[in-house]
Design goal:
Blueprint lengths: L1 H14 L21 H15 L9 E4 L3 E2 L3 E6 L8 E5 L1 H12 L4 E3 L5 H10 L4 E6 L2 H4 L3 E10 L2 E6 L16 E5 L5 H5 L7 E5 L2 H9 L5 E5 H10 L6 E3 L8 E7 L8 H12 L4 H16 L6 H8 L20
């Protein structure tokens, strides 16, 4: 009887395919395919690149930056002639940071300089350029057609500058009541301050760093609100580091961002740049080092210029009276 049962069991096994695998050893069509995580990341990156129309590969990314806001960015021009137009090129910390990141990702970048920040922002919204490398999180400025890359690449402390000996203890905008102040138009921080501007605080936008610093030194304004890093760049340029004082407590610390065009296929590369930017932020001060390299670079451009104090002293020097010998004397005619 025992042998009969073994015989019947053997026939049943043969009818089922000969033998049965353990449950965890079975391979079926419904089992998930395992891949090494690095392969999966690469696969997703390749898909994004394909959807973006090879942006940054066969087609360079068109990138613009700040026009007159060192050390974050400035634009140099190569004058044209009858055969070619003027050529404008971005330089500065923000552009160089983005360029370095793109290079590490194996992407090509085309340097697109503009004569004004407004022109660059308009081109971004239309999709004529792919990335603008400098903006605060300011919806009134950016508007439709822009897509901010998070996280930010740096915090930008906003401080108050006074002439030496005329400084005041300022912890908030309230402490500036009764004084007349200015803020540089190119730094784009007026719109950030406007909503919280207390009644009684006088502040005007001033175009041009030389004009703004000249007004401060001539006493036409009592203070200048500026970025800490922009101040460091300009007071070294004008050679007035011993003439001004900066407040120690920032009024605010707005963050600066890279901005992609919503109308550009390059926007699909945002996750790739986000990952790369996080690596840069975690890389032990490399972003800060790059920033101060461009503070030095900007100041060095003007190393042979006269100090601003000397320039101003010549323009406002009182006219000396003429010497007596040089003054014509009327000689009475003889009768």
């Amino acid at each position: 009887m025992k042998y009969f049962l073994w015989y019947i069991g053997g026939i049943c096994l043969l009818s089922l395919g000969g033998f049965v695998l353990p449950v965890n050893a079975q391979v079926g069509d419904n089992q998930p395919v395992r891949r090494y995580v690095e392969q999966e990341v690469q696969k997703k990156t390749e898909k994004r690149q394909k959807r973006s129309g090879a942006c940054g590969y066969t087609k360079p990314m068109k990138v613009a930056g700040f026009v007159t806001n060192p050390p974050f960015g400035w634009v140099d021009v190569i004058p044209g002639d009858r055969t070619r137009p003027d050529m404008y090129f971005n330089d500065g910390f923000a552009y160089q940071l983005f360029y370095n990141m793109a290079t590490q990702l194996g992407l090509k970048v085309e340097n697109k300089g503009f004569t004004s920040y407004h022109a660059a922002l308009t081109a971004l919204k239309k999709g004529e350029i792919d990335v603008l490398v400098g903006s605060y999180y300011d919806k009134r400025t950016l508007g439709v057609g822009t897509s901010i890359l998070f996280p930010s690449y740096i915090k930008n402390p906003i401080v108050v500058m006074f002439m030496m000996g005329k400084e005041k203890d300022v912890k908030s905008l309230e402490d500036l009541k009764g004084l007349k102040g200015g803020v540089r138009q190119e730094e784009m921080i007026y719109s950030l301050l406007y909503d919280s501007l207390p009644e009684g605080v006088q502040m005007e936008q001033i175009a041009g760093s030389k004009e703004a610093y000249s007004r401060l030194m001539l006493g036409k304004i009592d203070y200048l609100i500026t970025s800490l890093y922009a101040a460091e760049s300009e007071i070294r340029r004008f050679k007035i580091t011993d003439k001004v004082v900066l407040t120690r407590v920032p009024l605010m610390e707005p963050e600066l961002f890279f901005v992609f065009s919503s109308n550009s296929p390059c926007r699909l590369l945002k996750p790739t740049f986000e990952e790369q930017l996080r690596k840069e932020r975690d890389n032990g001060g490399s972003i800060g080092n790059l920033l101060f390299e461009h503070v030095d670079k900007w100041a060095d451009r003007f190393r042979y210029e006269e100090p601003l104090t000397d320039i101003l002293s010549k323009t406002i020097a009182p006219k000396m009276p003429e010497k007596a010998a040089d003054i014509p004397v009327a000689v009475p005619s003889m009768p």
